[in-house]
Task: inverse folding
């Protein structure tokens, strides 16, 4: 009745936890962080962060603020952000105030949210634009060379110019 049961599998003793079911790290309303914050899990900000934030999901509550760049898979904002936001999914709640660019795959802006900045789609923002082959190899003439090549000497463009009074 009270004897230990034999374990047939050694990993049955280790509890299996899904990272998505873990409790988020909470920055309480009375806490101010000066510096960058990096988390592999979920972060809920109720206080103030003066620095960059990188996490899987980030929730910024009403009355909270982040002054720095944000990089996450998902971001839900009810508070204030000053800085660039880069995330797959971005939701600006009705009380959100964002000053900075938003780079996203999916963007939801609720009525009443404030956004001052540019919105760019994540796929477009990550594409590296290549230079044309002529410009990269130097085979194309410069603007000055092209302009000189098109001008033929004539009496008009070869005589000295007269000074004009200013």
Result:
């Amino acid at each position: 009745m009270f004897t230990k049961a034999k374990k047939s599998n050694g990993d049955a003793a280790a509890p299996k936890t899904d990272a998505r079911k873990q409790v988020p790290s909470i920055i309480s309303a009375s806490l101010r962080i000066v510096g960058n914050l990096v988390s592999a899990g979920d972060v809920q900000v109720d206080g103030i962060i003066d620095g960059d934030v990188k996490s899987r999901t980030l929730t910024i509550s009403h009355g909270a603020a982040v002054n720095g760049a944000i990089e996450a898979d998902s971001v839900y904002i009810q508070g204030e952000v000053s800085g660039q936001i880069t995330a797959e999914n971005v939701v600006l709640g009705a009380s959100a105030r964002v000053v900075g660019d938003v780079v996203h795959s999916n963007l939801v802006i609720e009525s009443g949210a404030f956004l001052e900045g540019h919105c760019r789609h994540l796929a477009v923002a990550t594409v590296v634009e290549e230079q044309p082959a002529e410009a990269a190899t130097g085979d194309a003439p410069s603007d000055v060379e092209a302009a000189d090549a098109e001008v033929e000497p004539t009496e008009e463009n070869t005589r000295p110019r007269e000074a004009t009074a200013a």
Q: What stands out?
A: Residues 10-15, 142-149 have pLDDT under 50 and may be disordered. Residues 21-126 form one domain. The longest helix spans residues 143-150.
